């Protein structure tokens, strides 16, 4: 067992903590062809396992990077590193101090900001237009995006289900959606139509 009481499979490596680059905005991007890059931004994802799963999915589906908010994110711990299956070391990670400011300045630089939502008023994921540099914002496990972050998005998107039920009118517990699963579904959908590149 290591210092955090985690099994270590016979090997221990003493490594320095990952240094995350501070960022205030994403720079303007010139489009080549019909493709634009995709960044994943996380708002209050505090569960280390969910953070690791989102980083893993982001790497697997080819996102350009992941942006975390310095104030309200799970720390990049050994638990996150192990659960990310190595992708934590390979994914470009950045940190912002103020999520709303980061998003609004990136919008001014030509980025589309899509916020994951369960609202029936959100755009179904399969209706999202192609080719625009995109920031996908995912909220916390229990409450979703904070209202100010939601208002900083250019569009809200949802994963359409196969049942005729509006979960936005149910209780918060009924509406809880696993953010790590949703991130994979959203990334898969955005990349499978060939509209984004890393």
Report what the structure shows:
- Pfam families: SpoU_methylase.
- InterPro entries: Alpha/beta_knot_MTases, MRM1, MRM1_MeTrfase_dom, SpoU_MeTrfase, tRNA_m1G_MTases_N.
- Helix 1 links the parallel strand 2 (38-42) and strand 3.
- Residues 167-177 and 193-198 have low confidence and may be disordered.
- Helix 1 (48-61) runs parallel beside helix 7.
- The chain has seven helices and eight strands; from the N terminus they run E-E-H-E-H-H-E-H-E-E-E-H-E-H-H.
- With 198 residues, it is α/β, with parallel strands linked by helices.
- The protein has an eight-stranded parallel β-sheet, sandwiched between helices.
Keywords summarizing the entry:
198 residues, alpha/beta, Alpha/beta knot, 8-stranded parallel sheet, 8 strands, 29% helix, disordered C terminus, tRNA_m1G_MTases_N, MRM1, S-adenosyl-L-methionine, rRNA processing
Q: How many distinct domains?
A: 1
Mean pLDDT across residues? 79
CATH topology: Alpha/beta knot
Enumerate the strands of the largest sheet in spatial order, edge to edge or round the barrel: 1-4-3-2-7-5-8-6
CATH architecture: 3-Layer(aba) Sandwich
Q: What fraction, in percent, of the residue positions are helical?
A: 25-40%
User: What is the ordering of alpha helices and beta strands?
Assistant: EEHEHHEHEEEHEHH
Alpha carbon gap, first and last residue: 37 Å
What structural class should be given to the helix and strand makeup? alpha/beta
| C-alpha-based Rg, rounded | 17 Å
The percentage of residues in β strands lies in 15-25%
- Overall morphology: globular
Low-confidence stretches: 167-177, 193-198
CATH homologous superfamily assignment: SPOUT methyltransferase, trefoil knot domain
Give me the number of helical elements: 7
Main beta sheet strand tally, sense and closure: 8 strands, parallel
CATH class: Alpha Beta
Question: What is the count of β-strands?
Answer: 8
